[in-house]
Amino acid sequence: MNHKDYLLWIINHISPTDNQIHSPDSLSSNDWLNIFNIALEEGLAVYLYYCLRQLFSEIIIPEQINQKFVKASQNLIAKNTVIFHEMEKVLRTLNDNDIPVIVLKGAYLSTVIYPHNGLRPMGDIDLLVHKRDLKKVRTILLDMDYQQKIQLDIEMECERSRHLRPFINDKSVKIEIHWTITEKPDQLNELARNKYWDRAQSIRISNNDVYVFSAEYLIAYLCYHSYYCHFFKLGLKSFCDIAETLRHFQHEIDFNKLFSYSFELNSNRIVYTTLCVVSDLFGLRLPGNPMSKFKPEGFNQDRVDSVKGWILGEFDEVPSCDRNIANVWNNSKTGIGMLVYVSKRIFLSKLELSTKYNVPVNSVKIYIFHLVRIKDLFFQYSRSLFRVILNNTEMKKSIKTINKKSELKDWLSI
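-> structure tokens emitted (414 positions)
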């Protein structure tokens, strides 16, 4: 079995169908070790262990590997217990100060979607608040002995990111306070952001009344987040989250609402493609084919297969190549095109140089940084550029992969 085979085995035993379940008795100790390590890397080891114990009344896992699964489960439960305890205190304090909160991603998924909150790893606590409450929330967290490495003016923070810089306490619990969920802070206006709250519903999490997204908005958001924030680099865990959410709400989902919300997030193609990938990977079959009427223009199975390929590591063996080198290659068919592209990359504007090298834009010294730029580019790209000039086969393969990913990104972003 290769890496892809192990990933598919993990998927099939997390989300089994009748023709996918295979008894693990034939696996060797080395297979089990690879399965554990890959599942752990994907953030799914504990959930896989839980699913295997649900699937098979008796399952023979080599003792040494079984202990690894048990230890991983114990560690995750211990870590999540601390996180949820700290989250309870934070949510209670915010409630006491009349600050409404939407609980995002991990905390909600672990509590509501998965069988219990010791099955899904949580890196941090993601909370969404109104922009007007950001300053007050920061003060509250600092008073609760959370720390920020850097504190900027709230408006500067909002221009920089969709959330304030992380808050961390002495228990290493990290909290991110969001004011918008879009990758680009200015992607949605205030009216559109207020719709978050229209799409929210009240539930109790960690003994506190909070808001969470409705099923349809949650699914649209999870699809959006897996692409825009990470270009599907979160691996299987993010797709498992979507699969489990679809399964949990399968009899309640209004797909008209779901795709209406995807248009609100300017991500109809992203949501549709991601849901197709999840359906293919996890064997989900939605009754009545409810997505057919929402199929976007230009969609085809190749796009789904490309995303699946990146998730399953099919392109991991392709040599890495920088996007800029690929662009040099793409423009090399015409000498003028290549010269124009290279000159644009070398001779940046004064504002770009100022930002990159932290030098005042009106300083005479800024012109020196054109030379610094040439030196930096030479050391960074000369080896790869030489391989392009020599028409290196491996480099061409790498550039082809990058172009394929760029074409998919361009289509998804429309």
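The chain is about 60% helix and 5% strand.
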